[in-house]
Write a structure and sequence with these properties.
This is Teichoic acid transport system ATP-binding protein. The chain is of the alpha/beta class. The chain contains 9 helices and 19 strands. The structure holds adenosine-5'-triphosphate (ATP). The site of adenosine-5'-triphosphate has 12 residues, from strand 1, strand 2 and helix 2.
Length: 455
Amino acid sequence: MARQTAISVNNIEKTYRLYRKPSYRVFEVFCPGKKQLHTPFKALDNISFSVKRGEFLGIIGKNGSGKSTLLQLICGIIPPTKGTISVNGKVSALLELGAGFNPEFTGRQNVYLNATILGFKKEEIDRKFDAIASFADIGDFIDRPIKMYSSGMVVRLAFAVQANVEPDILIVDEALSVGDSYFQAKCTKLMRSLIDKGVTILYVTHDITSVPLLCERALYLECGRIKTIGPAIEVVDRYLRDLRNDQYQRGEADPGQPIHGADKNASVVDVTAEKKSTDKKPSSLIGYQEAKGKEKSFAERVRDYRYGTGNARVIYLEMIGMNGEPLDTFGFKEKITVRAFIETKKELDALNCCVIVRNKQGVEIMHCTTREYGYTFDTIKSGTRLVVDISFENILKPADAYSIHYTVNNTYSLENQEILDLIELAAVFKVKPDPQHPIYYLIWHPFSFSHRIVE
Ligand SMILES: Nc1ncnc2c1ncn2[C@@H]1O[C@H](COP(=O)(O)OP(=O)(O)OP(=O)(O)O)[C@@H](O)[C@H]1O
């Protein structure tokens, strides 16, 4: 059955009047017919497209290309200069940070205010309030005035309200970039579940890699016109090619050259689980006491992201850089160590630790288990405290946020294993940009090359 149209945009134009001085605007209003003092500026021109119900459309384009203007038109915040827009369903929008919130009111009062504006009765909001507050996860701040919130808290609350009021159409304008990585992962999950429920989502972002992963289709705006609209992967590819060509024109990149030199000695991912001797006191035992001190806050943070039998438990996990310091940002090719402090509650004869590195859209980029890499543990008694280091060379695309999914299993075979502790968002980290090693794809991979000249 053909899907219903949720949004239909027909030949839209939006022209702003640009004045060199604010007083010229007043003068034009009060002296009509006199000399025109403004310059017309078409922020959008000749825009036509439609979005089906349950579709996730990404909108991309350089700064000033008209993305936000288009969303504002669809939400009815500003009128078009020409053309028509029809919207079929209840729209929830997250446009400007904190727009729609009264700074003097508490978070709780603003939730009621917003939901009332969206057409909900008090009893309905009462029913939804706990889900909204729990999603926003801002603790006691919910009863403090919004003016005391950080920008991250404002966006958490705003997203929680907009996404939990059962919209037919959800419009999100880059707002998520203000939240931290945990929150962004939560929002992505929620948006996916909304799509499953038939909600239509329009999503403006500069995080280009997220578009093919989240969206079916994408619309690429350039200087207020549609450059292309179609399958997200193709549109993003076109956009990235244009960006690279722009860089080339400015002398910043050479699209004809390989980005990196080959390193014939480099391994793909150097995964080593570093075994601690059990007969001599490992140096990290001092760290273990500190880890115990952090156990409660770690457990609290990962509470919603973990499951398992609990027969072994990660009490704390940290990311360590090449100097042995806990870090949350790493450089290109830096050795990253994921250090887990684990306590066992039963004897384990097939301990297997697993790390998955995901990007912020949830794509699994790298994965290892100690077992699969041939690293074995001796039988470990109940009540043992151990520190397991899993290290890899950082070959990830910079400036992106990544999360670590950590699992402790007792694994005899794929079919016969006990999940002891599985933590979805055990840690998050970022990768520093390195001008010497720009990485345009998800990972830098060490290729090797050869050639011969045939006469
Ligand atoms: N109220 C306004 N008056 C005049 N010009 C405006 C107004 N609002 C937006 N513009 C202009 O319209 C163009 C499109 O702006 P818009 O904010 O829609 O772009 P955008 O693609 O969302 O940019 P960004 O990625 O930087 O957020 C820009 O050149 C902007 O300066």
